[in-house]
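note to self: dont lose this again. the chain is below, predicted strucutre after it. 468 aa total, dont forget to put it in the shared folder this time
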Amino acid sequence: MYRAHHHMMMINLVVMCLVLGSLFTKTNTTSITQGQEKDRITALPGQPNVTFSQYSGYVTVHKRHGRALFYWLIEAASQNPQLKPLVLWLNGGPGCSSIAYGASEEIGPFRIHKNAQSLYLNKYSWNIEANILFLESPAGVGFSYTNTSSNRRDSGDKRTARDALKFLREWMSRFPQYKYREFYIAGESYAGHYVPQLANKIHNYNKRHHDPIINLKGFIVGNAVTDNKYDNIGTVDYWWSHSIISDTTYKSIMSACKFTSSKFTEKCDNAINYAWNNEFGEIDQYSIYTPSCNKSSANVAPKRLKNTLVRRHISGYDPCIERNSEKYYNRRDVQEAMHANITGISYKWTACSDELLENWKDSQFSMLPTYRKLIKNGYRIWVFSGDTDSVVPVTATRTSLSHLNLTVKTPWYPWYLKGQVGGWTEVYEGLTFATVRGAGHEVPLFQPQRAFLLFQQFLAGKNLPKNK
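---
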């Protein structure tokens, strides 16, 4: 009896070791490839000491056209980063840099001093909870480049998603320890297109492969462009309800603009232009209650009510903060430390590319069908809104999401941080929506602590706290 019991114990132990060994090889590969070492950042100029590793460099996504995307991986500030998930962050525009915004003024570990000579730490960096991969996408944004100059004038949603998937597959060959790792996508603004479109690409790719290396679990997007018609209706509602435009102008826009096409009629254009030129005033439209940068960040032309990204901040905040990035990342010693601009790009690094924005070729009219498909397939999906943004405002997102007709699981309630209301949230079957009180378009810039809690709860799959 003892021998039989001992034999069974040995068999069970062997089986357990085989299973654990298999899991270990799939999730905890720690070997450093030659490509990784080549991309390792020893230290950035003016950087404070940190304990986490950083890597940056290029991944070619189209050899014939010479398209290469630039990434910056900031590993988790943890003793065991291999146990933390991988999160890909994308900024929008289209044509704006995830390094300029996401990494340098939102969720990254470093902030740039005004003189662009040194960096200081962000105490609410998202790399406390995850390994963060910033991607400048598509080619033509930031340090990402193409050797086919026409590519900068014929970009669009479809190619951006295709190239991003190719990037991830190639990048994981260079960083095999991230194969099978729990993976999430995050972003804001026009990444309301990029993020679900890439999630959909990964979902379709994984269905075709018996051993998918990209272990997509879900995504989280903020102030997200979602549906042209409902976003625009919700945006004009926000302008009126926040006293930015008059009753007369509100009625004239709603009468002239049907928002059923991505192109506006002349009458609709005229009504919106009247609001912009005569009623908005010199405000920062991405944060309506804070100072505006005096570099005419106010009257940026509408179109879409428009997909541009200017910049801002709150008390203690510099509304021209993007200038710090444009100084710092154009320094040659910074580029050398990051293995950037190795081909000698013929133009300066900029936070956003006007050329890409003005020549965007295809834009999905509504992301709602993509949401329906991804919800049906069980991904964790969170959508959040800073409530002082007038460009992709909370009312736009709520109007769009209402047309998903989701079943409410947890009705609308205030969530709390340190005894104060951090915002409001409602949990549906398949999607969580949350507002962040007092935040503009770039939520983690204006409300870093609230955004950090939001991210923690998302990763944990837990509702935002109801109690003080």
